[in-house]
Amino acid sequence: MGFTLPFLNGASRKKRGQIISVDLGSRTTKAVLLERRGEIYALLRYALLDAPIFDKKISADQLANHLHAVAAALGGTTKYVSVAVGLGDSVVRQVELPQIPLDEMRLVLKMNHKNYLQQDLPNHTYDCYIIPPRTQEAEPKKGVPPAVAGLGTGIITPAKFKVLVAAAKQQLAADFMHAAGTAGLVADALVPSLVGPINAFEKSLPESFAKETVALVDIGFKHTSVCVLDRGELATIRTVNIGGDQLTAGLSEAMNVSYAEAEGIKVGMAPEVETALMTQVLPLGREIRASLDFFEHQQDRPVTEVYLSGGSTRSEMIVQMLHSELLVECKTWNPTTFLQLALPGQQAVEIDHVGPQLTVAIGTALAAY
Fold this sequence. Notes:
Elements: E1 18-23, E2 28-37, E3 40-50, H1 60-73, E4 80-85, E5 90-98, H2 102-117, E6 124-130, E7 160-169, H3 170-182, E8 186-192, H4 196-204, H5 206-211, E9 213-219, E10 224-230, E11 233-240, H6 244-255, H7 259-267, H8 274-299, E12 305-309, H9 316-326, E13 329-332, E14 340-341, H10 345-354, H11 359-368
Helix pairs in contact: 1-3, 4-11, 6-7, 6-8, 8-9
């Protein structure tokens, strides 16, 4: 999909051989070092680090120290870094915009963001990705950049384009650029975390991406993203304000155990916690089901499978509970299957277990390429 925010991703940017990609979590930062080898992508190393501050806004200086630690953990072989913007710090919407160049689209959004995005977003920066139609291949209109390959067969010339729009605060972008520079890195791209799973899924399961109607559900720490892909086209986007933190905190309270103990229980298979865990998972299941219902009623097409990612999906019990609530086959998937694995010893052993946590980081790296 290759969808990025422009303020760290200029058109003159050269292709990078290696890139560090960072998914800044509220509790755990996930990062990967990817290398492009012709048409092949190689995973050289990954890192899971404790976030520097829990449940607070991180300062630019603290972020700089953290990015420096991430780069060191990954081996420090490249200075280029891409960062995923969390669901709480970015707005992603699908809208229709006139047939105009991307620069003009950004200006239109800056001047009319409330009209197009139904939110008042002052002091934000914007980017647009033209979603290619599935049929009727044709040349793009002169002056309009061609769409990124992979979501369709080409650009046609309708009255308007279907466009994926992202917005983030200008100060957030400035902080990331300052932090990267202070850490001795080069800020290469800033990417909405919501599109990370889509990018990784397209590479990992190209047949399902192109031919099926599926939902990608990424359970983060504070939020869960739900994206319905209809035969290669992004059809529905939703952010749910329930994540792994709420599941763990609720389980901790229900069982009168510490948060750390509840986290261990959550990803384990202890049958005695099933009732307590079910109470926490059901609200999330209902919100996901509502997202699927919205798409199915609008398009009169069923979602045939739900692909789950995120740390909480390491629990087979949670996957089974969501399957029971959604009445659709739910499965986890490994975003590393398309990668050439060139990992050091212990990481090579653990990658299958860790893989679902790296989904956003891997998809962010692909967007930067």
